[in-house]
Write a structure and sequence with these properties.
The protein is an alpha/beta fold and about 325 residues long. Helix content is about 20%, strand content about 25%. It has two domains: about 220 residues, 3-Layer(aba) Sandwich (QueA-like), CATH 3.40.1780.10; about 80 residues, QueA-like (Thrombin, subunit H), CATH 2.40.10. A hairpin with a 4-residue loop joins strand 1 and strand 2.
Length: about 325
């Protein structure tokens, strides 16, 4: 296979026609990269059961997506989009104003709500801000009434919140969909059960990712329950593979893993950043979407694949017009 420049931003078409960008999950394609043989193979996602082995364990994120995009108004009367990101406590959240703000600036919200921008999370890259919200209802109730799903320019349709949910969604809290789980359907899960492929769950509430500039992943809340930790440890003890469905799952499991790879029940915050020098302890494989070169997810992919193999995989996907981002195709690394 001919190597290509690693992860050039134009590798895949982000302006695919609407029928390829829609939410028809049966149309999702699957690129499978084998780290051992350094080869790629191509499937439809609904064939994934035939790719996996009996006894493999998939670990999925059961966080549900909330309508985290609000329209705020400055004191000047100008509108400003605000993406609510991560809960610190009932009033204090991180958020992403989609335009410049200053310390102490007050922004008005619908129904008499407001927020005050307290400080940038990282002064060197003032994209995310700590903000104090004053709302007439708890945040998730307020967002359900006044918010919209976070939508980026490459998504040309205004889709309802239900289209930003995965089949595993249980606990509301993600500002962006844990999208690696999006292609799973009841049919796929039935075929996985028939092949004795297990499914365990963790929860990690996704914040707001960066597509404009590379940056360290933000801190996010997670929980690895005891039942899932036990399932992972039994799989590893039996020599069976543990495959993370999404980079969020990798962060949660590697945060909860001890030095010997044992996964313990855990909850709290993770600020784990993975890259090519990171030695994976708990995870053997990864199912992920396709990402821009500047996305924070790329570092995690490099913990699984060296730059040459990752570049080759993305070049192969580009040649076949795979689609990236949350409504696109997916990549399984084994």
């Amino acid at each position: 296979m001919t190597a290509a420049p690693a992860l050039a931003p134009g590798l895949m078409d982000a302006t695919a026609p609407p029928e390829r960008r829609g939410v028809a999950r049966d149309g999702v394609r699957l690129l499978v990269t084998d780290r051992g043989t350094r080869t790629n193979a191509h499937y439809r996602f609904f064939e994934i059961a035939s790719v996996l082995r009996s006894g493999d364990l998939l670990v999925v994120n059961d966080s549900a997506t909330v309508a985290a995009a609000l329209t705020a108004t400055r004191s000047s009367g100008d509108a400003l989009a605000v993406h609510v990101a991560t809960k610190i406590d009932e009033r204090l959240w991180t958020c992403e104003p989609r335009g410049p703000v200053v310390n102490g600036e007050r922004l008005n919200l619908p129904e008499g709500g407001s927020l005050v921008a307290i400080a940038a999370v990282d002064e060197r890259r003032p994209r995310l801000w700590y903000a104090a919200f004053d709302l007439p209802q708890p945040m998730h109730e307020y967002l359900a009434r006044w918010g919209e799903p976070v939508r980026y320019g490459y998504v040309t349709e205004h889709l309802p919140l239900r289209d930003y949910q995965t089949i595993f969604a249980r606990e509301a809290g993600s500002s962006e969909m844990p999208s690696a789980g999006r292609p799973f359907t009841r049919r796929v899960l039935r075929e996985l059960r028939e092949r004795s492929v297990g499914v365990a769950t963790i929860t990690l509430h996704c914040g707001v990712a960066s597509f404009e500039t590379p940056e360290r992943p933000a801190m996010e809340r997670f929980a690895v329950p005891a039942a899932s930790a036990d399932a992972i440890n039994h799989a590893r003890a039996d020599g069976r593979r543990v495959i993370a469905v999404g980079t969020t799952v990798v962060r949660a499991l590697e945060t909860a893993a001890l030095a010997d790879g044992e996964v313990v029940p855990a909850s709290g915050w993770t600020d784990l950043a993975l890259d090519e020098g990171y030695e994976l302890r708990a995870v053997d494989g990864l199912l992920s979407g396709f990402h821009d070169a500047s996305a924070t997810h790329i570092g995690i992919l490099r913990a699984f694949l060296d730059r040459e193999l990752l570049g080759d995989a993305y070049a192969d996907a580009a040649e076949r017009a795979y689609v990236r981002h949350e409504f696109g195709d997916v990549h399984l690394i084994l």
